[in-house]
Amino acid sequence: MAERFFAPCPRGLEPGLQDELTALGASQVRQVPGGVAFAGDWPLAWAVNLESRLATRVLWQVAHGRYRGEQDIYKLAYGVTWAKWFTPEQTMRVYVTARRSPLKSLEFITLRIKDAVCDHFRAVRGARPSIDTANPDVRVHAFLTADEVMLYVDTSGEPLYKRGFKQAAVEAPLKENLAAGILRLTGWHPTEALLDPMCGSGTFLIEAVQIALDIAPGLGRRFAFEALKTCDEAAWRRIRRAAEGRRRHATGLPIFGSDSDAVQVKRARINLEAASLADMVRLEQAELTERTPPADEGVMVANPPYGVRIGETAELAEFYPKLGDALKARWAGWRCYFLSADPELPKLIRLKASKRTPLFNGALECRVFEYKMLAGSNRREKP
What we know:
The protein is an alpha/beta fold. It has ten helices and 14 strands.
């Protein structure tokens, strides 16, 4: 019998995640805002954790029922066979999210679910797991609608966008799964040149190299399912080895990164080295409005400042027109993509965006603006 799972992802990437899950062999795949539900066996869940570039985590549904009050939720949680999957020696934490729930306190619901799990363990094992809010062995997630509750065990642990190797962080970082999703939206193929001219800590660059070399994004980390009793260690090792053996080898890729800030270039280099990918990317310090293209055509992708990260509106009002002038002057033949939460960007950059794709960077609503730089064909957008 197939198990039921739910994989949350950044809002706007659901179609891409559905494609990933289908390609991995998932059945009953269904998009909802903020994620994709699917069915399959345990090896599929392990593979999704290892292979998905877009999912934030993989949640295993262990109970589903209707409720009118907190006691109904307690009864549902108490009846789940928790002791089949982990031990009282392992630590746990409960997370609750709700949409249109009539119940007043999510904190009280969290406490009741925790009590139900612990009471279940006391009844069947004579001992209860301890609570660890920082780094629990087992994460139990509950999701409430107006009259239904779903209980899940988190098979991932740390969010899947934590690939396991990044060392040098930057302020307001771009999550790895959002970066991978934006690369997917650009239609970039590894045979094309790719440039991130505002590379920051190198997130776009690392994701691009992993895609080009077919490196499973989860190879550098561990997962919560490895500590569950449902994990067949031999079968899991086979899945990992197959992914490791699939990695392509290359002497160099047409992937380029730059930043006007030498500190950011250093951070990108540190992270590329931590991922053992430093020799795959050509990095340099350069100002986007002044640099020349590294190839006759290709894909430019960037997460430029949009007020939230740098904050000075006057600086942006000066920068964006210069960016538009530089793109028109030197980047014919390139497809350029910018993630921005600033709806004024197209007006300031003074180019006609050929596409605007809504995405969420955390809780921040953004757009990916596409500019196809065809010589002589760009129209100024009316102010």
